[in-house]
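Progress narrative, Year 2. Work on Nudix hydrolase domain-containing protein from Lentilactobacillus parafarraginis F0439 advanced from sequence curation to structure prediction during this period.
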Amino acid sequence: MEGGVWVDANAILEQPYINITNIIWSFDQVTSKVNILLVKRNTDPYNGYWALPETFMRADESADEAALRLVKEKIGMALSDSHTEQLATFTNRLRTPKDRTLSLAYMTFYPN
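Result:
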């Protein structure tokens, strides 16, 4: 029962995947431009396309920890949590072609 209304147990989403998408950016003081890291996907779906770096959140970590782990894995730099911030959550069930995935978007500043 939810809020006084019976809910069909089959209608409850139990375990969606949680994807962390990270906008990793830096500021070039020489050119006064913002740089954003893109990676070329090497798996389906969208193999060969450019994308923002992403990873799945692991069972033993928070979303913030996953965002910082992603930075370390992609560019080899360990940053403190003061460099990253969650921007948005995307939940549209049609967002991914296979299993239901919730996506948390982060913005991470990469210092020069």
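The helical segments are 63-75. The mean pLDDT is 88.
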